[in-house]
Amino acid sequence: xxxxxxxxxxxxxxxxxxxxxxxxxxxxxxxxxxxxxxxxxxxxxxxxxxxxxxxxxxxxxxxxxxxxxxxxxxxxxxxxxxxxxxxxxxxxxxxxxxxxxxxxxxxxxxxxxxxxxxxxxxxxxxxxxxxxxxxxxxxxxxxxxxxxxxxxxxxxxxxxxxxxxxxxxxxxxxxxxxxxxxxxxxxxxxxxxxxxxxxxxxxxxxxxxxxxxxxxxxxxxxxxxxxxxxxxxxxxxxxxxxx
Length: 243
What we know:
Distance between the termini: 5 Å
Mean pLDDT: 88
Order of helices and strands: HHEEEEHEEEEHHHEEEHH
Protein backbone atom coordinates (compact mmCIF):
# COMPACT_ATOMS: atom_id res chain seq x y z
CA UNK A 1 0.00 0.00 0.00
CA UNK A 2 1.46 3.37 -1.00
CA UNK A 3 1.95 6.27 1.38
CA UNK A 4 -0.70 8.36 -0.38
CA UNK A 5 -3.38 5.72 0.08
CA UNK A 6 -2.31 5.07 3.67
CA UNK A 7 -2.74 8.78 4.41
CA UNK A 8 -6.43 8.88 3.49
CA UNK A 9 -7.60 5.31 4.02
CA UNK A 10 -7.99 5.81 7.78
CA UNK A 11 -10.80 8.32 7.23
CA UNK A 12 -11.44 12.02 7.79
CA UNK A 13 -9.50 13.96 10.39
CA UNK A 14 -11.12 15.33 13.53
CA UNK A 15 -11.54 18.87 12.16
CA UNK A 16 -13.16 17.64 8.93
CA UNK A 17 -15.45 15.26 10.80
CA UNK A 18 -16.45 18.02 13.21
CA UNK A 19 -17.30 20.39 10.35
CA UNK A 20 -19.22 17.61 8.55
CA UNK A 21 -21.23 16.88 11.69
CA UNK A 22 -21.95 20.57 12.19
CA UNK A 23 -23.02 21.00 8.56
CA UNK A 24 -25.73 18.33 8.64
CA UNK A 25 -26.92 18.39 12.27
CA UNK A 26 -30.58 19.32 12.49
CA UNK A 27 -30.80 20.30 16.14
CA UNK A 28 -28.61 22.18 18.57
CA UNK A 29 -28.64 21.90 22.36
CA UNK A 30 -27.58 25.13 24.05
CA UNK A 31 -26.52 25.47 27.68
CA UNK A 32 -26.13 29.08 28.80
CA UNK A 33 -26.82 31.28 31.80
CA UNK A 34 -27.85 28.29 33.88
CA UNK A 35 -30.46 27.09 31.38
CA UNK A 36 -30.56 24.37 28.75
CA UNK A 37 -32.69 24.47 25.59
CA UNK A 38 -32.85 22.63 22.28
CA UNK A 39 -33.23 24.51 19.00
CA UNK A 40 -34.44 22.49 16.00
CA UNK A 41 -33.73 23.67 12.47
CA UNK A 42 -32.60 27.04 13.81
CA UNK A 43 -28.89 27.21 13.06
CA UNK A 44 -26.62 27.80 10.10
CA UNK A 45 -22.84 27.62 9.80
CA UNK A 46 -20.48 30.31 8.50
CA UNK A 47 -17.51 29.43 6.32
CA UNK A 48 -15.16 29.72 9.29
CA UNK A 49 -17.23 27.42 11.52
CA UNK A 50 -19.07 30.05 13.55
CA UNK A 51 -22.65 29.07 14.33
CA UNK A 52 -25.49 31.45 13.46
CA UNK A 53 -28.47 30.70 15.70
CA UNK A 54 -31.92 32.14 15.02
CA UNK A 55 -33.93 32.44 18.24
CA UNK A 56 -37.36 33.92 19.03
CA UNK A 57 -37.49 37.56 20.07
CA UNK A 58 -38.68 36.56 23.54
CA UNK A 59 -35.94 33.95 23.99
CA UNK A 60 -34.11 34.05 27.32
CA UNK A 61 -30.91 33.28 25.40
CA UNK A 62 -31.33 36.42 23.28
CA UNK A 63 -32.02 38.50 26.38
CA UNK A 64 -28.89 37.10 28.06
CA UNK A 65 -26.80 37.91 24.99
CA UNK A 66 -28.07 41.49 24.87
CA UNK A 67 -27.75 42.17 28.60
CA UNK A 68 -24.50 40.37 29.33
CA UNK A 69 -21.31 42.41 29.85
CA UNK A 70 -19.66 43.08 26.51
CA UNK A 71 -22.53 41.12 24.92
CA UNK A 72 -20.60 37.90 25.27
CA UNK A 73 -22.27 35.32 27.56
CA UNK A 74 -20.56 31.98 28.00
CA UNK A 75 -22.35 29.03 26.42
CA UNK A 76 -21.90 25.42 25.33
CA UNK A 77 -23.43 24.04 22.14
CA UNK A 78 -23.93 20.32 21.60
CA UNK A 79 -24.61 18.54 18.32
CA UNK A 80 -25.23 14.83 17.72
CA UNK A 81 -24.32 12.81 14.65
CA UNK A 82 -27.19 10.33 14.22
CA UNK A 83 -26.88 7.41 11.79
CA UNK A 84 -29.59 7.68 9.09
CA UNK A 85 -30.01 3.89 8.99
CA UNK A 86 -31.63 2.28 12.07
CA UNK A 87 -28.87 0.48 13.95
CA UNK A 88 -28.03 -0.27 17.55
CA UNK A 89 -26.35 2.80 19.04
CA UNK A 90 -27.33 5.37 16.38
CA UNK A 91 -25.24 8.22 17.83
CA UNK A 92 -22.04 8.02 15.81
CA UNK A 93 -20.38 11.06 17.37
CA UNK A 94 -21.07 14.15 19.45
CA UNK A 95 -19.67 17.65 19.06
CA UNK A 96 -19.32 20.13 21.92
CA UNK A 97 -18.42 23.78 21.32
CA UNK A 98 -17.72 26.20 24.18
CA UNK A 99 -17.62 29.93 23.51
CA UNK A 100 -19.80 33.01 23.50
CA UNK A 101 -22.76 34.56 21.67
CA UNK A 102 -22.88 38.00 20.11
CA UNK A 103 -26.19 39.47 18.81
CA UNK A 104 -26.05 40.40 15.13
CA UNK A 105 -29.04 41.35 12.98
CA UNK A 106 -31.65 38.61 13.54
CA UNK A 107 -29.16 36.00 14.74
CA UNK A 108 -26.89 35.15 17.62
CA UNK A 109 -23.38 34.53 16.36
CA UNK A 110 -21.49 31.90 18.34
CA UNK A 111 -17.71 32.16 18.42
CA UNK A 112 -16.13 28.91 19.64
CA UNK A 113 -13.16 28.95 22.00
CA UNK A 114 -12.98 25.17 22.45
CA UNK A 115 -14.20 22.35 20.20
CA UNK A 116 -14.38 18.73 21.36
CA UNK A 117 -15.36 15.80 19.16
CA UNK A 118 -16.31 12.54 20.85
CA UNK A 119 -16.14 9.45 18.68
CA UNK A 120 -16.39 5.76 19.64
CA UNK A 121 -12.60 5.73 19.83
CA UNK A 122 -12.63 8.55 22.39
CA UNK A 123 -12.76 12.34 22.69
CA UNK A 124 -10.37 14.68 20.92
CA UNK A 125 -9.89 18.44 21.27
CA UNK A 126 -9.99 19.96 17.79
CA UNK A 127 -7.49 22.70 17.01
CA UNK A 128 -9.43 25.95 16.48
CA UNK A 129 -7.41 27.04 13.44
CA UNK A 130 -7.85 23.62 11.83
CA UNK A 131 -11.57 23.70 12.64
CA UNK A 132 -11.99 27.13 11.05
CA UNK A 133 -10.05 26.12 7.92
CA UNK A 134 -11.63 22.68 7.46
CA UNK A 135 -14.39 21.94 4.99
CA UNK A 136 -17.23 19.44 5.46
CA UNK A 137 -16.87 16.14 3.65
CA UNK A 138 -18.20 16.62 0.09
CA UNK A 139 -20.61 13.70 0.57
CA UNK A 140 -21.96 14.85 3.96
CA UNK A 141 -25.12 16.43 2.57
CA UNK A 142 -26.01 13.36 0.52
CA UNK A 143 -24.94 10.72 3.04
CA UNK A 144 -28.37 10.10 4.59
CA UNK A 145 -30.01 9.51 1.22
CA UNK A 146 -27.14 7.35 -0.03
CA UNK A 147 -27.08 5.10 3.05
CA UNK A 148 -30.83 4.63 3.34
CA UNK A 149 -31.03 3.78 -0.37
CA UNK A 150 -28.23 1.25 -0.01
CA UNK A 151 -29.85 -0.36 3.04
CA UNK A 152 -33.42 -0.38 1.73
CA UNK A 153 -32.97 -1.00 -2.00
CA UNK A 154 -29.73 -2.98 -2.14
CA UNK A 155 -29.45 -5.34 0.85
CA UNK A 156 -27.89 -7.86 -1.55
CA UNK A 157 -25.04 -5.40 -2.18
CA UNK A 158 -24.49 -4.97 1.56
CA UNK A 159 -24.39 -8.75 1.93
CA UNK A 160 -21.89 -8.99 -0.92
CA UNK A 161 -19.64 -6.38 0.69
CA UNK A 162 -19.27 -8.58 3.77
CA UNK A 163 -17.00 -10.78 1.63
CA UNK A 164 -14.40 -8.04 2.13
CA UNK A 165 -14.63 -8.37 5.93
CA UNK A 166 -12.41 -10.71 7.90
CA UNK A 167 -14.36 -13.81 9.04
CA UNK A 168 -13.44 -13.10 12.66
CA UNK A 169 -15.31 -9.78 12.50
CA UNK A 170 -18.44 -11.52 11.25
CA UNK A 171 -18.49 -14.15 13.99
CA UNK A 172 -21.98 -14.48 15.53
CA UNK A 173 -23.24 -11.54 13.41
CA UNK A 174 -27.03 -11.21 13.27
CA UNK A 175 -27.24 -8.19 10.95
CA UNK A 176 -24.96 -5.96 8.88
CA UNK A 177 -26.01 -2.42 7.94
CA UNK A 178 -24.26 0.53 6.26
CA UNK A 179 -23.38 2.94 9.06
CA UNK A 180 -21.46 5.79 7.40
CA UNK A 181 -19.92 6.88 4.15
CA UNK A 182 -17.48 9.68 3.36
CA UNK A 183 -15.07 10.42 0.56
CA UNK A 184 -12.55 7.99 2.07
CA UNK A 185 -14.67 4.88 2.49
CA UNK A 186 -17.76 3.02 3.66
CA UNK A 187 -18.31 1.84 7.25
CA UNK A 188 -20.45 -1.21 8.03
CA UNK A 189 -22.09 -1.81 11.40
CA UNK A 190 -21.93 -5.49 12.38
CA UNK A 191 -24.54 -6.30 15.01
CA UNK A 192 -24.55 -9.33 17.29
CA UNK A 193 -27.04 -10.43 19.91
CA UNK A 194 -25.60 -8.29 22.70
CA UNK A 195 -22.87 -6.25 21.04
CA UNK A 196 -21.84 -4.58 17.82
CA UNK A 197 -18.71 -3.49 15.97
CA UNK A 198 -17.77 -1.44 12.93
CA UNK A 199 -15.66 -2.34 9.91
CA UNK A 200 -14.36 0.21 7.43
CA UNK A 201 -13.96 -0.53 3.73
CA UNK A 202 -11.58 2.03 2.22
CA UNK A 203 -12.00 3.29 -1.34
CA UNK A 204 -9.10 2.96 -3.75
CA UNK A 205 -9.16 6.77 -4.16
CA UNK A 206 -11.11 9.60 -2.49
CA UNK A 207 -14.55 10.44 -3.90
CA UNK A 208 -15.28 14.14 -4.25
CA UNK A 209 -18.88 13.82 -5.46
CA UNK A 210 -21.71 11.31 -5.82
CA UNK A 211 -20.62 10.28 -9.32
CA UNK A 212 -17.16 9.37 -8.05
CA UNK A 213 -18.72 7.61 -5.07
CA UNK A 214 -20.76 5.44 -7.43
CA UNK A 215 -17.58 4.39 -9.20
CA UNK A 216 -15.82 3.67 -5.90
CA UNK A 217 -18.74 1.52 -4.75
CA UNK A 218 -18.68 -0.43 -8.03
CA UNK A 219 -15.00 -1.16 -7.43
CA UNK A 220 -15.73 -2.43 -3.91
CA UNK A 221 -18.56 -4.62 -5.18
CA UNK A 222 -16.36 -5.99 -7.95
CA UNK A 223 -13.72 -6.88 -5.37
CA UNK A 224 -16.39 -8.50 -3.22
CA UNK A 225 -17.67 -10.56 -6.15
CA UNK A 226 -14.15 -11.73 -6.91
CA UNK A 227 -13.66 -12.60 -3.25
CA UNK A 228 -16.83 -14.70 -3.29
CA UNK A 229 -15.18 -17.18 -5.68
CA UNK A 230 -11.84 -17.13 -3.89
CA UNK A 231 -11.16 -19.39 -0.88
CA UNK A 232 -10.53 -17.48 2.34
CA UNK A 233 -7.00 -18.85 2.71
CA UNK A 234 -6.14 -17.69 -0.79
CA UNK A 235 -7.72 -14.29 -0.09
CA UNK A 236 -5.40 -13.84 2.90
CA UNK A 237 -2.40 -14.82 0.79
CA UNK A 238 -3.35 -12.24 -1.83
CA UNK A 239 -3.98 -9.58 0.80
CA UNK A 240 -0.60 -10.30 2.40
CA UNK A 241 1.05 -10.07 -0.99
CA UNK A 242 -0.52 -6.66 -1.64
CA UNK A 243 1.10 -5.10 1.43
